[in-house]
Amino acid sequence: xxxxxxxxRILARDGRIPRPLRWLAAVGLLxxxxxxxEAVLLLVAVLLFGFRREPLRDAWRRAAGAPLRS
Length: 70
What we know:
The protein is an all-alpha fold. 73% of the residues lie in helices and 0% in strands. It has one domain. It has helices spanning 2-13, 19-28, 36-51, 53-65.
């Protein structure tokens, strides 16, 4: 779970990802009660997997070795 959060944080700052998609990822990280934030993250994941696989792979690799920052 920590690696996933790190990867999303990396993707939210990645310049190769279109800005609206980065904003959606940032909204998905907000502590919103209910299933809203999970649905947004799922949508972002599907779009990234479908159209932006290379940045997704890079973020996943970088998240493996990066410490979690608060």
